[in-house]
Amino acid sequence: MLIQVKRKLRRPIDSPQMHENHKRPVTRRDFIAQGFLAGGATLLSGGIMSLFANPREAFATLAQDLTPLTAACGISNGAGKIPFICFDLAGGGNMAGSNVLVGTKGQLDVLSTAGYSKLGLPGTMIPGVAETTALPGSNGDHTNTQLGLAFHADSAYLRGMQSRMSVTTMANVNGAVIPAVSQNDTSNNPHNPLYGIQKAGADGSILTLCGSETSVSGGNSMAPLMMIDSKYQPTKVSQPSDVVGLVDTGQLVGLLSASDATAVLESIYRISKQRMNNTPGLTTGLTADQVVKDLVNCGYLKAADVADRFGNTVLDPGQDPLIVGPSGIFSTAEWNSGGTDQQEFRKTASIMKLVVEGFAGAGVIEMGGYDYHGGMRQEGEVKDERAGKCMGAVLEFAARKGVPLMMYVFSDGSLSSDGSIDNSVNGRGKGQWVSDNQDVASPFFLVYNPGHKPQIFTGSDGLSPAQHQQLGAFSADGNVMRAGTPGANNVNLLVETVLLNYMALHGQQGLFGTKFPSNGLGNAQNLDRLTALAPICNGIITNPV
Fold this sequence. Notes:
- The protein has 545 residues and is α/β, with parallel strands linked by helices.
- It is built from 16 helices and twelve strands.
- The strands form three sheets. It has a seven-stranded mixed β-sheet with strand order 5-12-9-2-8-6-7. Strands 1-10-11 form a three-stranded mixed β-sheet.
- A hairpin with a 7-residue loop joins strand 10 (415-422) and strand 11 (430-436).
């Protein structure tokens, strides 16, 4: 018999989590997961010797006689790969069942009533049961397939995404869920795939990788040790001023127009180079004389390039009308709302601005406080909907800029319900989250493709389309089948599965073994079995921003 509980929330939703069965928070990750800490900001200002290039835009007004010299000075057009953003929900939040649907073989191969109860859904809300009140975009049976990947019709993630995304954008999204065990409340889950995404070819004009935390991974969870390359450690970006601070066009831009400033710097470059080349006996006094000359020459050329590329560019996401304002993804009131909502919206906007517009190749957005078990379903619903708004903002911004995007969502652990019901307004008549449970974890990814919905992959593996959309399996009683896929019981292999699917979107699935020669995913047939979506581009983006 279900226990009906109308529980009054005794503290604000975003106050820190205090669990009697958890150790006292000690590390930065502990504090973030339990909501004691949130991300700050680190500014990275570009000087005259900085390296900048924009993979999404052609050279604008830089003089033709100087353009061929830019490659020698480290200025290039970048990789042009599909932008990649991941959400790191610190603490171990719910994804399976109450948000993204999971089943025994495919998403809609239903679990038992007890299995769904463990995932927070009472018998009146399980997939296949008719809705008493129609939910927006639903199929009428507590399922929603607007995003290709099936969500519960009353998923808090989905509600948040629906509030940010147009119907057209949702029609061009598809994805997959990956049932995979994830240890609870630990920093030892190497979930973060950013270094692997870089190795697969992603790059940006200002940064290669960015993240909202000053950690090696850029987020809460670690990156797989064998993938970490210190040259590409994510630059911390957690607010709009961090984005603006990445590029310094100098005082000339402001006193002059961007085109005039570029012309001035070009002239300085030419005069400097001619002076160095034509002055007999001119020397720096160092044995590496030519190196120093090249650095000076390239310094002026790069400064000219920065003024040319960014002098008229709106880098501040708060000043971008596609992001903030009457027609923006966030209203002005939301942008200035204060508190946690404002912080998370601004953090998301900063990362998505950099990645979607090609200033960074990939980024991670960490959101804290997802260790929300302890009897208050309403708290999880509010936080999940906020996360959904941020996820939807990322996908909608990609749509407005007309570029594809892969978005991956993971958490360090998960949680389960004991079947007692929270009938408060925000509890929505769903099961209380009462304990950590690593056996119900299931990260997922969504892909936006301009023009048409990404198609399910078909290979020679004999699997149905539904089995390519759910890469793994659940038991009928609501647990991850650990032998379902290589990544089901190994987080390192879970990351490799995500990287395989990123490369497959570029039509480069066959290069996976070359890029990651020590991978544990197996032979070509196994790679087919672990691929969710068919390619949406051939190696590089041919219609960039």
